[in-house]
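Progress report, Aim 2. The chain analyzed during this reporting quarter is listed below.
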Amino acid sequence: MDAELVQEMVRSGATSVAGLMATAAWNQASSRIARLFGRGERDEEASAELEVIRAEVLEADGDEEVLADQAAALRNRLRALFRTNPQAAEELFDILREFLPGQFEKAPGGTYIINTISGSSTVNSDLVIQAGIIHDMRH
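Predicted structure tokens for the chain:
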């Protein structure tokens, strides 16, 4: 992964992990994400720290400020992790690709695709559609 993509993984990865914490899929994803943060040496400690963040995410009950704070905490952890272990960005990408299909994908040729919509899911009261190549578009 190039440096720009690693930075995108810090941003979108943190937000996605925080969002994943509020879903049933967290039960399956949490041990893998804890191993990612713990790097095989501090997995239990990382798991406990992630569960503290998760508790705050769940207690936030949609409070955007609290959710933003938890995403910021995860961003800081990811930034430190990726600085010491750049391969961890690709590991996180693969985990998120498994648990958030459609948001994190790899295109033919190894191109990384990260689909992110910030804020409202509508723009000017119209739906936002993200697409790759749309064949045979006629205007």
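The chain has one domain: 3-102. Residues 3-102 form one domain. These observations will guide the mutagenesis work planned for the next reporting period.
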